[in-house]
TrEMBL record:
Belongs to the iron/ascorbate-dependent oxidoreductase family. SUPFAM superfamilies: Clavaminate synthase-like. Signal peptide: none annotated. Pathway: Alkene biosynthesis; ethylene biosynthesis via 2-oxoglutarate. This is 2-oxoglutarate-dependent ethylene/succinate-forming enzyme. It catalyses: 2-oxoglutarate + O2 + 2 H(+) = ethene + 3 CO2 + H2O; L-arginine + 2-oxoglutarate + O2 = guanidine + L-glutamate 5-semialdehyde + succinate + CO2. Keywords: Ethylene biosynthesis, Iron, Metal-binding, Oxidoreductase. Residues 196-299 form the Fe2OG dioxygenase domain. Pfam families: 2OG-FeII_Oxy (PF03171), DIOX_N (PF14226).
């Protein structure tokens, strides 16, 4: 502890560098995305300011006026409910263990997002960009690209999931423009890096948990997301919590017509931790089944992520070595997904 003499006596102060401690948030900000679509320069500047603040102080926020049709969202949730209601055998037919790139179904407890815990109480279906096996990046070993696995049905499942995915890709490009403005960069700064994005959509089903709950076995254990940002749609059930700088869990309930967006680790690395990749978890104590649809958006497999020049200076030296988007996500998957081992031979 250092001491500072004032006219009214001595005060103690911690020697904690030049930056002020962030104010711990107690609720999540709401960002109006309308300006990114209507192009008015003044309101865009306001959006950039609001977004910068949300990403710096919280790392979690709601977005409204996102232009995603409610019918596409409702369809995706209906599809998720029908999919998870099937018999286990049906779902296991497209199990992730049959995929090199984590596409398909994973059962309860097969994911362990927090490696110190005992497995997550959710089941999931993962899909991402459809890339053929003979694509040049796939043959060169870019293991996160590849084909999806689809359930055998009348095609409705694939149709509604792909419709939702297409909306998320469109929205992510707009959101990335807003992030660039928030970083005082040109709006299209990141555009060349996202034409073949590592972008994964998950359907999640959380059964309710009753009685006394061991915090090592909850819906999804405490974690940060790996990609640039996540766009999350929740059904009507509140279960998501975000950790503030005081170490307190803050509730992030669903708001009708809004998505929750959170900054991921790749964006934190790009911004040298100016934007914060906030830890979160979900516990479904509602007594009802819960469904959510996170969409994780990161740049192309080979895009190099390193601290942006504008986020590095003498008092904030670069904290991260350059790494490709693919290597980063790959290493995180290997740590948290029981069936993920890109070095092994997979048979469909
Ligand atoms: O379901 C939720 O509310 C959160 C999901 C999540 O954090 C994730 O899948 O990374
Ligand atoms: Fe997450």
């Amino acid at each position: 502890m250092a001491k500072l003499n004032t006219g009214n006596g001595t005060r103690l102060l911690k020697d904690s560098g030049l930056d002020a401690a962030p104010v711990p948030f107690d609720s999540l900000p709401v960002i109006d995305l309308a300006p990114i679509f209507n192009g008015d320069p003044d309101t865009k500047t306001q959006l950039a300011t609001d977004l910068r603040r949300a990403c710096t102080e919280v790392g979690f926020f709601y977005i409204k006026n996102h232009n995603v049709p409610q019918s596409v969202i409702d369809d995706a949730f209906g599809t998720a409910r029908r999919f998870f209601a099937q018999a286990t055998d049906e779902k296991m037919a497209i199990h992730v263990a049959k995929s090199k790139n984590n596409r398909g179904y994973a059962a309860l407890l097969e994911e362990n997002t927090d490696p110190t815990a005992r497995g997550d109480l959710h089941e999931s279906f993962d899909m991402a960009l459809e890339v053929p096996e003979d694509d040049e990046d796939v043959t060169a070993g870019a293991v996160l690209y590849g084909p999806n696995q689809w359930p055998e049905d009348d095609g409705k499942f694939r149709q509604s999931v792909e419709a939702y995915y297409a909306e998320m890709i469109k929205l992510s490009h707009q959101l990335l423009h807003a992030f660039a403005l928030a970083l005082e960069l040109e709006e299209d700064h990141f555009d060349d890096l996202v034409d073949k994005p590592l972008a994964t959509l998950r359907l999640l089903h959380y059964p309710p948990q009753f009685g006394e709950i061991d915090d090592r076995q909850i819906g999804i254990g405490a974690h940060s997301d790996y990609e640039c940002f996540t766009i999350l749609c929740q059904d009507k059930i509140s279960a998501l919590q975000a950790l503030n700088t005081n170490g307190e869990w803050i509730s992030a309930p669903p708001l009708p017509g809004h998505f929750v967006v959170n900054v991921g680790d790749q964006m934190a690395r790009w911004t040298n931790d100016l934007f914060t990749s906030t830890i979160h978890r979900a516990i479904n104590r509602s007594g009802l089944e819960r469904y959510s649809i996170p969409f994780f958006f990161g740049p192309n497999y080979n895009a190099v992520i390193e601290p942006l020049e504008s986020c590095v200076d003498e008092t904030h030296p670069a904290r991260y070595e350059p790494i490709t988007s693919g290597s980063y996500v790959n290493s995180r998957f290997a740590e948290t997904l029981a069936h993920y081992d890109p070095s092994k031979e997979y048979k469909l």
